[in-house]
Please model this.
Amino acid sequence: MFNELFTPRFAQPAGSPIRELFPYLSRPGMISFAGGYPSPELFDAEGLREASARALTDGAASLQYGPTEGMPRLRNALAEHVAGRGIRCTAADVLVTTGSQQAFDLLVRVFVQPGDVVYVETPAYPATIQTLRLAGAAIQEVPVDEDGLDTTRLAVMLEAAPRTRRPKLLYCVPTFSNPCGTLLPTARRQRLVELARQYGFVVVEDDPYGELTFSDDATEPLYCHGAGPAGACNPVIYLSSLSKTVAPALRVGWMIAPPEVLRRCAIAKQTADLCTSPLNQLIAAEYFASGRYLATVRHARAEYRRRMEAMVGALERDLPGRVRLVRPKGGMFVWVAHDAGVDPQSLFCACVEAGVLFVPGRAFYPCNPDPHTMRLSFAAPGVDDILEGVSRLTRAFDAALAVGVEHAL
Amino acid sequence: MFNELFTPRFAQPAGSPIRELFPYLSRPGMISFAGGYPSPELFDAEGLREASARALTDGAASLQYGPTEGMPRLRNALAEHVAGRGIRCTAADVLVTTGSQQAFDLLVRVFVQPGDVVYVETPAYPATIQTLRLAGAAIQEVPVDEDGLDTTRLAVMLEAAPRTRRPKLLYCVPTFSNPCGTLLPTARRQRLVELARQYGFVVVEDDPYGELTFSDDATEPLYCHGAGPAGACNPVIYLSSLSKTVAPALRVGWMIAPPEVLRRCAIAKQTADLCTSPLNQLIAAEYFASGRYLATVRHARAEYRRRMEAMVGALERDLPGRVRLVRPKGGMFVWVAHDAGVDPQSLFCACVEAGVLFVPGRAFYPCNPDPHTMRLSFAAPGVDDILEGVSRLTRAFDAALAVGVEHAL
Model:
């Protein structure tokens, strides 16, 4: 009886292309470059145990419902935390969300109805694409190059768009993007904000990886460029999360936006989950208060950099001329384009056979996939596994090429 | 710039009518019958501290992302837990959600598009009404009496409805309803399931209060009546939560539904928040494993019964003939109808003045409010506060009547 009752979008919904890889993960000895998970070895379990014990000393606060907007202690801590990235705001500007995925979902509920145009920096994080698809958005791809979102081509798109087909939102990950690992240069950040002001759209800056930089050069979030003079409206809404730096299991993310947006997102959040776990919010607040955060993030930066260098070095050494990549300046991912002579499906099967997993690039395109691409994560596996994984990948390239040659004969 | 970009439903969205009462709550000495919060004195803080410490011993599991469907340990524990209520299912039938509010929200995403008819037992929980409103559902009220949902009138509604205006979903809280505290009798449960089968709609059974019974008579969830013979489709989807029994701050709820529904809700959940906090899920699983759950719930039952009896006794003693109520058989609420001669707004103001707060009944009606009603919660205040609160309520009735008489002169 249920099948007749689902909405059309849920009649035959496609699942996550990344989750479809899960069955392969359980194969013995599989090395995975597929996940978007941080390395569990980098979690500060001891610090979080202490924070949790402190949060639970006041059970009346940490076990009860909390305000939809978030626990005041955490909102304060987050306002202070983002100041370290150059963002000036107060606790009142922060909405705590159940991971930054929820923050994006709330924005989509509040801004997007079926048919509304949304621009997405492409390739893009698949859950973003899925959220927009299920909301019925008209998704348009904004191309990227080795420096991230191509603002020149964006300007051309905007100029060519009739007034009714202008975007309401533009989604991007300007700092160490998922999947490309690119860092948007300052000039492009400024240009993007100008275009948002000129054409009247909101830029959603998703910044879960911003803390995971591999150099000492600080790049200000897009949000800072949008701030402008006092009284001017900031067209950038900022999203971030503790999932990549402290622990995904806290499900603590946040949004920084003007009051009229936060008020509506809080109303949407009441229907979504009433409030984000006050226990987890207080654990996060205690963790910030403990002063351990900085050391944890510094350790993660160093370790992820080591793993990135191992992966990029091995790819360049083992697959010269067969793959093109941009050395990431931070984050968790390397985006790899490979020779069009290699059939992507054969390559994927050969990799599974060889015992190494990646996410095929087509998952990251809302409309027009470039199948000769792949996302490799260097965050979860250790250096030895990375080297072994790349060597398996190399063997898989050979095998896939052999298949291609067979087919051609 | 933002105001032009919101969707029409979020252009001027109404907030929660209960949250609008928050400013009054902070007045010194205010006694609140308004909240839907469980009593923090009944939280087993010690048991949860221990559960939390155990969950955190394996940080790699409890701090990482988890499966969207829920942690296997908790899904197993919940399948076992609901067996105590008479529900036969396996872990695979359970989807863990971020509170049962999220479970309902996921169902609305999957089943309801703008204009779809949804029946709601009325009066009803305001967040349910709000979720449906924001989804653009065509809400129709199903009346209740002192035994809960009136299945005779429901049958009349269904028979009168043209085929295209039949409901997709019917939402109800058959066991100790919010706000009425009623318990749906077995015969009506059977009839409701029959009607769902006959007219092809899904019954959403929201059961957060089912464990909080004040007697030893067990009433089987609606879900059990829907199970039918092997192979027959159960038209009931079951939702529940640990918020009223263990701790709201865990944000652990769940849904029991057929695989085709769970699969779609899991896809919707990926876009909503990826997964419910694995840390909180493992705390809940450890808490079940500790064996302390039963004692905690028994204690809550006894204490809530004591508070209910204090409230109902005082109302009957202090306001005879001026209020009508049905003595709750469980849960956290008494629903009170009062004399139409008392102006509801004057009564509310007089109560605030006297230092007692309730939720005006109109908040619980999606379409046609009966303003001469109020919801009183006996869960959070202690017995002394309950007695003092009812005595303030009595004075407020006098004051509101005096205002009414003045107006009439």
Remarks:
- Chain B is about 40% helix and 15% strand.
- The mean pLDDT of chain B is 94.
- Chain B touches chain A through 79 residues (CB under 8 Å).
- The domain at 2-43+295-408 of chain B is CATH 3.90.1150.10 (Aspartate Aminotransferase, domain 1).
